[in-house]
Amino acid sequence: MPDHQHIAVLGAGAWGTVLANLAARHAATVHLWTREPAHAAEMAATGVNARRLPGVPLAPNLTPTARLDDVAMASVILLAVPAQAARQTLTALAGIAAPNVPLILCAKGIERASGLFLSDVIGEILPANPPAVLSGPSFAADVAKGLPTAVTLAAESEDEAADLARTLAAPWFRLYHSRDIRGLEIGGAAKNVLAIASGIAAGRGLGASAGAALIARGFAELSRFGRAFGADVTTLAGLSGLGDLVLTCTSGQSRNFSLGLALGRGNDLASARADGQLTEGVFTSGVLVDLAHQKNIDMPICEAVDAVLAERIGIDAAIEALLARPAKSELAQALTEEK
């Protein structure tokens, strides 16, 4: 198998920093890229990413940089920038990344402007670089503390996925591998929208029973969407589908859940986002619903979230509309969805 001695991580947020530290356990050289020279200089001077992951030392063989040219010799590149910034970063990377170097997508979302999955954005801009996807139930703070975490890495072949998984593995960070790139992308994108719905329900005080029902029916929506776009049902029921959905819909560490919680408690969207934290579900909801409409996929929870975020409907009216939907046989609906 390839011996990856130079790995680059693009995006110096909390998750990118954790992944860079994990990569540094296996590679001789790791570059952690940020678009801000001052941020790179701070990290180099202090040995810690105080802005995004305070208290966690950077590995000695990890070099912060604001120069994309520094990643030119990397044999693996992880893309940990926000989903909506992926195109800009990939465009800047064109002509720098060597052909055949895998690009591992670590953000969870769908490009809003084009409606493309991020692996397709890679195919459009860097067709000589094979895409891979890392996704699953994980919080950067947990992994940084060495708490047990399991995720999935998908690539075009099982061998490549297994090879790339070894570049990030740690005793507490277990990576399963897969060929279902699309399934991982869909699970990671849809769960953020559903987490906003879960937060809204919690903020409105609808109770644990409603929360459980919302996750179950939300998973049904995610599964319908995934099957329509070619995802493997095993992937959807695994770590990067159901697993990530449960985590994101039940934890205050989830930025999407927290935003929904604030909305459910009566805050408007602007004040709910006042902390400046990125919430991918806000950007994903509209494009997810648009893609669902193109294939006539029924996604009432995601549609309600999109309508609330776009201020086309109030939260109470959205809840009332969901509760007023005609009751169906759960088994009959499931069998219909399998066809």
Structural commentary:
By secondary structure, this protein is of the alpha/beta class. The protein is 49% helix and 11% strand. The protein contains 16 helices and 8 strands. Helix 4 (118-125) links the parallel strand 5 and strand 6. The longest helix is centred in the middle third of the chain and has 23 residues, at 181-203. The chain is globular.
What is the secondary structure topology, with strand pairs?
Layout: E1 6-10, H1 14-23, E2 29-33, H2 37-46, E3 62-65, E4 76-79, H3 86-93, E5 103-105, H4 118-125, E6 131-135, H5 140-144, E7 149-154, H6 158-166, E8 173-178, H7 181-203, H8 208-228, H9 233-236, H10 239-250, H11 255-264, H12 269-272, H13 280-294, H14 300-309, H15 315-323, H16 330-338
Parallel strand pairs: 1-2, 1-4, 2-3, 4-5, 5-6, 7-8
Antiparallel strand pairs: 6-7
Helix pairs in contact: 3-4, 7-8, 7-10, 7-11, 7-13, 7-14, 8-10, 13-14, 14-15
List key phrases describing it:
339 residues; alpha/beta; 8-stranded mixed sheet; 16 helices; 8 strands; 49% helix
